[in-house]
Amino acid sequence: MKIYELNASSDERWVWFFTVEGPLRPGHFSQTRAFFEMQPRIRIDRNTEKSPRRSSAILADYSCLDTGSQPCFGERSKRALCRQLDASGQWLALECAEAPYWLFNVTHSVDALDESKSELIRFDDGRIMRIAQFAFQPERLRGQLIFQLPQRPGAPNLVTQDFVDLVHEHGLTGFSFRLLWSEENGPVSSKLKDWERPRITGLESRIT
Prior knowledge:
four-stranded antiparallel sheet
């Protein structure tokens, strides 16, 4: 078993977006369904600093929205994965002139962090400020796809190898997965620079 942090690819071949009314921040949405359902439709537009309208960048199946902390699925990836993901969160249709996109609010939380083997930065009162190095209890993650940890609600979402395999099975583009932990080798060292950390991406060869 392997656990990854879900991100959008930083490759400049893919279009990124921004929210017209202002950037979304980690934790912008509550994890409660009622709060999310009351949100107005969010307007997004192309991030022209990264991918100008006349550039060769193309729309990906998964994209970066502002900071990249909220999953942003295109029509093809939503159609391919919605049946597996529906129980883990809720979809919000975005207002986009170029193509249909949906924000996915992950409401599924799994208490699977092994705190005794993780590297934790704590506040003075003992609460977790940041997780520098992750370790998990694998028996609690069998059959999971996408989730958050109760210790870090609203933070970037985590996915299992099963989720990564689904992305590759459907040949979906624009995904980036940063390895955090594997059952075989344990945590990825916190001493690594971000660019040194192992990553895998969506099937980047599917370019039309």
